[in-house]
């Protein structure tokens, strides 16, 4: 069977090959009717454009890079999948690298990415990036979008969840249940995202005339292990009779680690202590009890980042904050009355 060409599509649609090319490349002003007719012809003939030849003409690789702190983190795995799905819909491949929040590793991964002559780069990584990282980006002239963490003075678009709002909503949910002694579990306070969540937490307390107590602020590393250790530290400091009635854990992984520790110690969630997480990773609904959490719009984050990256507009220093929402499950409840 002879290979279908762009000229076959043009003949079937009753247009020129140049018009078909404009529809394929998203250029020029083509009427919706003509565009629909061309796309119908493409489907009928099962035409597949030669992406390699097209890329050589435009110096494109149809590949983008994604830098994340840790692809084994369920949040970043879901974010990567959202970017990947959107890329696939546009016939792009995604190369993914983990940086472990280490500046030197970020710079090395960036150099490796740039050697691939990628069409763009999405950066969802740490705030430890040095000036060398940004100098390399600037010199490369590659299109770049930052995602997830708002970093000041970045001359590129930033798309992130409004973490201040998310933590405010999480804390307000606990307050509305009747809690007044609320602890917060955070990742390292060197991260702006942690500081934003702490700020939202403090503001919600202030709005409800609850005194902020820095003895109820616990900060550690990353992941489930860190949440376990924070719960262990809190119990060691407070004792079982002096525990707060609720905890806002600034990631679901921290919350799940705390939940595991409380289970081992026979501390019932939510009867003895309420627990709300942040992210809404898949595991949040599978633990026992299912975790109340703040859902980040992960799919929208990934989709928007890709669309902005490969858009036609020049990229500039803009910040887009997407609103999160509280997902109420079974790990939060009103505090038990004092005996």
Q: What does this molecule look like?
A:
The protein is α/β, with parallel strands linked by helices and 339 residues long. It has three domains: 6-58, Orthogonal Bundle (434 Repressor (Amino-terminal Domain)); 63-161 and 299-322, Response regulator (Rossmann fold); 163-295, Response regulator (Rossmann fold). Helices cover 44% and strands 16% of the residues. It contains twelve helices and twelve strands. The protein has a six-stranded parallel sheet, with helices on both faces. A six-stranded mixed sheet has the order 7-6-8-9-10-12, with helices on both faces. α5 packs across α12 and α6 packs parallel to α7. The longest helix is centred in the first third of the chain and has 16 residues, at 74-89. The mean pLDDT is 89. GO terms for molecular function: DNA-binding transcription factor activity; transcription cis-regulatory region binding. Keywords: DNA-binding, Repressor, Transcription, Transcription regulation. It holds the Pfam family Peripla_BP_3. Residues 3-52 form the HTH cro/C1-type domain.
Keywords:
339 residues, alpha/beta, 434 Repressor (Amino-terminal Domain), Rossmann fold, 3 domains, six-stranded parallel beta sheet, six-stranded mixed beta sheet, 12 strands, 44% helix, 16% strand
């Amino acid at each position: 069977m002879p290979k279908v060409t762009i000229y076959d599509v043009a003949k079937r649609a009753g247009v020129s090959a140049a018009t078909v090319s404009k529809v394929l490349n998203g250029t020029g002003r083509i009427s919706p009717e003509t565009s629909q007719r061309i796309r119908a012809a493409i489907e009928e003939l099962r035409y597949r454009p030669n992406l390699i030849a097209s890329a050589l003409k435009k110096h494109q690789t149809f590949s983008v890079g994604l830098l994340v702190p840790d692809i084994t983190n369920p949040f970043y795995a879901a974010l990567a999948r959202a970017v990947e799905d959107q890329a696939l819909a546009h016939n792009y491949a995604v190369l993914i690298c983990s940086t472990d929040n280490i500046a030197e590793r970020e710079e090395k991964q960036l150099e490796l990415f740039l050697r691939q002559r990628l069409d763009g780069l999405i950066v969802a990584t740490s705030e430890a990036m040095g000036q060398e990282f940004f100098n390399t980006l600037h010199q490369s002239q590659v299109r770049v979008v930052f995602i997830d963490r708002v970093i000041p003075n970045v001359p590129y678009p930033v798309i992130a969840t409004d973490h201040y709002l998310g933590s405010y909503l999480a804390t307000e949910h606990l307050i509305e249940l009747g809690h007044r002694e609320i602890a917060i579990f955070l990742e390292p306070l060197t991260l702006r995202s942690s500081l934003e969540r702490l700020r939202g937490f403090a503001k919600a307390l202030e709005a409800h005339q609850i005194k902020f107590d820095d003895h109820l602020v616990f900060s550690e590393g990353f992941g489930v292990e860190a949440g376990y250790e924070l719960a262990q530290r809190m119990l060691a400091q407070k004792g079982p009779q002096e525990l707060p009635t609720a905890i806002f854990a600034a990631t679901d992984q921290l919350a799940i680690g705390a939940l595991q520790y409380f289970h081992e110690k026979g501390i019932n969630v939510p009867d003895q202590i309420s627990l709300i997480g942040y992210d809404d990773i898949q595991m949040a609904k599978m633990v026992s009890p299912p975790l109340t959490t703040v859902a980040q719009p992960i799919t929208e984050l990934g989709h928007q980042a890709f669309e902005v990256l490969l858009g036609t507009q020049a990229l500039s220093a803009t910040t887009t904050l997407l609103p999160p929402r509280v997902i109420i499950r079974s790990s939060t409840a009103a505090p038990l009355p004092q005996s």
